[in-house]
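Running co-folding for NAI.
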Amino acid sequence: GLRCVVTGAASGIGQAVAEQLTKGGATVVSLDRNHPTVPVSRHIPIDLSDPASIDEALAQLDSGFDAHINVAGLPGTAPSELVFKVNFLGLRHLTEAMFDRLNPGGAIVNVSSTAGFGWAQRLESIRELLAADTFESGLDWFRDHPQEGNTYNFSKECVTVYTMAMATGLVEQNVRMNAILPGPVETPILADFEESMGKDNLDGVKFLLGRHATPDDIAEPILFLVSPGARWVNGHALVVDGGITGAVLSGLV
Ligand code: NAI
């Protein structure tokens, strides 16, 4: 079976990913601040807001993985800098250390969000940030460049652009990197999103689609992206939102 590293497996979408991988015969190493409640092969505690903690976790991790799946994240109700550290800086720090721990043919999937769909408007800033290629220098950039609006959206825009930008950089290792952009998903942080994005907005999405996503609705496309069938899908931002983004972009709703 596949050997996989999954962050965020202690709850929500990450838990569904871990469950489905295990069901499919994969070995799952969990990296999370909390211990997962579903069976995993191994759990290593990590605090993604702290590069020293990430390095400690990495020191306990071997190599030869087929997939690295970044699901852990904080909602926009958490303190701004913490959101940026966990959702982007920590994700990047961990992911870059995983590059040479992945087997040829391996894949990385980053969970972004439809909340990060507006990256094109901030592309110049995000490119500048990406050029700051350590956790600390990225944090310095962030402190020097206050962003408008909720940091959650900006952190997800960064994840999306990072994913697209890194794709060709991993060709030599024969590793692919893709992003998933979910719309609202029924997990413990949905209540936080109602607070930070407006309950009316989320209710509106639910009204149009009939329901919100389940964690499995998101986990299955993630599994596809790490499967051999996705071998030519690379640097792609896959929207998995039941159709709401398309409807909004086309001006129909
Ligand atoms: P969740 O709250 O159920 O799970 C998040 C996981 O991340 C938890 O296991 C938590 O322990 C872990 N985590 C948080 N901070 C951490 C840290 N500092 N170090 C290590 N682990 C940490 O949330 P959910 O809904 O499963 O979200 C997973 C991902 O999906 C997040 O990146 C979120 O932004 C994204 N997403 C969620 C949507 C939703 O509506 N639920 C919509 C779009 C994206």
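Result summary
Residues 3-247 form a domain with the Rossmann fold fold (CATH 3.40.50.720).
The chain has ten helices and seven strands.
Job closed.
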